[in-house]
Design goal:
Distance between the termini: 50 Å
GO cellular component, one term: membrane
Subcellular location: Endomembrane system
Transmembrane segments: 32-52, 64-81, 101-122
Largest sheet: none
Number of domains: 1
Pfam families: Far-17a_AIG1
Radius of gyration: 21 Å
Number of helices: 7
Number of strands: 0
Structural class: mainly alpha
Keywords: Membrane, Transmembrane, Transmembrane helix
């Protein structure tokens, strides 16, 4: 989810900045805060993926896809519910991207299914690549630490 939010923010920021982070906000909110909110989470996710995830067994990919789908469908439902019941988009940029019916139908499909599935797939591929490397490094480190402890006891 963090990758999804951060990438969406930066994509809209670079294509039509006024929709998501108007220049007037920059006077109130420092640039470092913007990066803390929209860049740092990506780094934290990758650090977690590298340092923690290889140690644990991830959920089956199918389960992760179902969780992502349920979450995103619910989120899109609430977003569209607000739009049609209250007449306002929760996020201004969604109104810009949903100007036509084609866009109104395609945008939720991309935002709800395609993009989250791509992120889940990438995460599982990274995990598959890193798990053997991290496990091997951990065994090596654990062995050295165990040897030092045994030597100190003697």
């Amino acid at each position: 989810m963090s990758l999804y939010v951060c990438n969406t923010f930066w994509y809209v920021y670079h294509t039509n900045r006024e929709l998501i982070y108007p220049k007037m906000i920059e006077k109130l909110v420092p640039a470092w805060y913007n990066h803390t909110m929209h860049t740092l989470p990506v780094l934290i996710v990758f650090l977690h993926l590298i340092l923690v995830e290889p140690e644990s067994s991830p959920l089956p990919m199918k389960t992760s896809m179902i969780i992502q789908t349920v979450f995103h469908v619910g989120y899109m439902f609430l977003t569209f519910h607000d739009r049609y019941m209250k007449g306002v988009w929760l996020y201004k940029f969604l109104g810009y991207y949903a100007e036509t019916w084609t866009r109104t139908l395609l945008a939720p499909i991309l935002l709800t299914f395609v993009i989250p599935y791509i992120y889940v797939w990438i995460a599982y591929r990274i995990n598959d690549e890193l798990r053997p490397t991290v496990t091997k490094a951990k065994r090596k480190t654990t062995g050295k630490v165990s040897a030092k402890i045994k030597n100190k006891k003697q």
